[in-house]
Amino acid sequence: MADATEKELVGSPGREPVILSTNVQFQKSFVSRDKRGQVLGSEFRGCTVWFTGLSGAGKTTISFALESYLASRGIYCYTLDGDNVRHGLNKDLGFSPEHRTENIRRIGEVARLFADAGLVCLSSFISPYREDRAQARKIHEESGLPFIEVYVDTPLATCEERDTKGLYKKARQGMIKGFTGIDSAYEAPLNPDVVLKTAQFSPEECLATVIDHLRARGILPYSVVKTVRELFVPADQLQAALKEAHSLRKIRLTKLDLQWVQVLSEGWASPLGGFMREKDYLQSLHHAVNTSEGSVNQSIPIVLPVREEDRSRLSGQAAILLTYGESDEPIAILRTPEIYAHRQEERMCRQWGTTCQSHPYVQMMFDAGDWLIGGDLEVFRRIRWNDGLDEFRRTPNELRAEFAARHADAVFAFQLRNPIHNGHALLMEETKSQLMKRGYKKPVLLLHPLGGWTKADDVPLPVRIQQHKAILREHVLDPESTVLAIFPSPMMYAGPTEVQWHAKARIACGAQFYIVGRDPAGMPNPDTGKDLYEASHGREVLKMAPGLPQLEIVPFKVAAYNKEEQKMGFYDPAHADKFEFISGTKMRRLAREGQEPPSGFMAPEAWKVLQKFYQDSHAEQS
Question: Which residues contact 527 (CB under 8 A, 6 or more apart)?
Fold first, then answer.
């Protein structure tokens, strides 16, 4: 022991006094909190959320729900639960007043360390004494760490009715002595930061209350609290915005630009507030993330190209009007615009991983302009295409409402740009079955065909929607547990880079599971005919993509036609001779020639839709 002043202290209640040295000095870490935030992929968010209340009040339920919510959104957190801690760190303590005080003292110190490490520490303890809770708050505030006291204010009668552990019954029978609320006092907080009335509000409502408070304190980013960020002008401000628009210089959007306006305005790219400025562009291009509100996956740049003449006349403007069509229909205001160079070769190589300038989207990129203009979007109204398909163009918030109306407890999304055959349906039904085996009661499928620009030889959107509707009419997919909607994004054919965007966008509408197929977003090199991307890389990249913690990736099982059973089945390499892979080329030839596919390959009504399309297309070409 060091040669220094010593004093006698009680180390743990009920134990022999121990001699402790008093010459210890606190050692300051070389790692700053800002650095710790960087290591965790965000700004420093360290704090302690301290849940206090009677046994059975709902502390553990809400703290674990909050932990799950935060972790699924990339926020580092950990729950210290009263029962769990007494299995280890505090297994030597009982429930006397002295032991309760020591229990909370230790937990307060541990929570402070967790918070100092940058975690959101969730502490769930009865912690009956005000003085003990005040001490826990004090050591946090002395360390410059937020301490949020959450009083789970549940009446004793309600807690006794719940009595999930049977402890109140034992306490009433005298089998447990010193039980808080029965024969031991609980000192309710006098000025808690948050009060939760679990007898009046659901766990989900209580959870939302805590999240809102953490957001108001600046601990949580916007994207954690509000998943969908719509960019529409509020109704009460619309007339003023339209009046202002008449005085602004304008840019006329292309159809492709307008599709991206729709994507942004409806919230698919949340938390983006408009077309990317250069900082956001570089983050997306080089790191596949956006950090304006936490760390969110954003693998593809969403940008507005302009030409040199536009740059010259728009430089220095505080706001710009975006219009569409020959009539210059006002679409949106772009505020505080920033114009920067569009380095197309760099973008081509990083976004598409190719130098092939005959790639169809790359061609459009080179033709669009040498400059990019970013800024905050204020969109006047919903984008409507008036093509008979607008009923299927449902925003993320509308889809969330639909899933809630169907009482969905799991949403799994399947994105496609091709017609559906029974192999696709087999995978979707298998996914539903697996989710139900995991305990979900009402999983709902989001059948979500891409509805923006596609290359000329893809099946057009109206035909695909007809075919998908036929699939549902024939009950190949269950109409009661399937929502058919259009995803408004253009297709870029950027392989594993783009598939991250497809997955990320579905989070906005509430999907928790995403089915990724073979060679998603891929295509052959137009010059060589060889595939630009390895077929499995989309799936592999998604498994390790940054900024997608709340989405579970469902791998695509390879389906083929089982010749013996005359239906689509999962391919078994051990019995390869039983299976036939029906290529897209063969399918198109059969349809064009008016032939039927093998029985069980595709629903008959759905096949007729494709037959008509390919026969009509062939007749036009002839």
Answer: 356, 358
Q: What residues have CB less than 8 Å from 438, skipping those under 6 apart?
A: none
Name the CA radius of gyration of the chain, rounded: 30
Which amino acid belongs to residue 365?
Answer: M
Residue of 123, 32, 139, 25 lying closest to 77 (CA atoms): 123
pLDDT in tens, 95-111: 888 998 999 999 999 99
In this structure, which amino acid lies at residue 276? M
Characterize 320-359 residue by residue with b for buried, 16 or more Cβ atoms within 10 angstroms of its Cβ, and e for exposed.
bbbbbeeeeebbbbbeebbbbebebeebbebbbebeeeeb
What is the pLDDT at residue 558? 84
SS3 of residue 376 by DSSP: strand
Q: What is the DSSP string of 176-231?
A: SSS-BTTTB-----SS-SEEE-TTTS-HHHHHHHHHHHHHHTTSS-HHHH-S----
583 CB contacts (<8 Å, ≥6 apart)? none
Answer yes or no: are the C-beta atoms of 447 and 414 closer than 8 Å: yes
Looking at 421-573, list the stretches that DSSP marks H as alpha helix, in order from N- to C-terminal side. 422-437, 461-473, 495-508, 537-543
Of the residues 63, 124, 127, 489, only one is catalytic, namely 127
Distance in angstroms (rounded) separating the CA atoms of residues 396 and 288: 22
Instruction: Supply angle C-alpha 461, 465, 470, rounded to 5.
Output: 150
Predicted pLDDT of residue 15: 57
CA torsion sign, 226 to 228 to 232 to 235?
Answer: negative
127 as an active site residue: the answer is: yes
Task: Using the predicted structure, report yes or no on whether residue 135 has a pLDDT greater than 60.
Answer: yes
Q: 120 falls in which pLDDT band (50, 70, 90)?
A: very high
| pLDDT at residue 2, rounded to an integer | 37
Distance CA 458, CA 340 (A): 34
Q: Please, which residues bridge with residue 232 across strands?
A: 379
Q: pLDDT-based confidence at 14, cuts 50/70/90?
A: low
* Spatial separation of the C-alpha atoms in residues 413 and 401, rounded to whole Å: 16
Distance CA 607, CA 476 (A): 13
Q: How much is the average pLDDT of 244-261?
A: 97
Spatial distance between the Cα atoms of 76 and 294, rounded to a whole number of angstroms? 11
What are 333-387's pLDDT values in tens digits? 999 999 999 999 999 999 999 999 999 999 999 999 999 999 999 999 999 999 9
- The region that residue 591 occupies, defined by phi over 0 for left and psi between -120 and 50 for alpha, beta otherwise, is alpha
For 229, the token pair is 């960020």
Tokens, residue 57: 């009040």
Both tokens assigned to 111: 């929570």
Residue 465 clears pLDDT 60, i.e. is over it: yes
Question: Which residues of 308-459 form beta strands (DSSP E)?
Answer: 319-324, 329-341, 371-379, 410-416, 443-449
Tens digit of each residue's pLDDT (9 = 90 or more) over 28-85: 888 888 888 877 767 789 999 999 999 999 999 999 999 988 887 778 899 998 888 8
More confident residue, 74 or 332: 332
The angle formed by the CA atoms of residues 49, 550 and 461, to the nearest 5 degrees, is 145
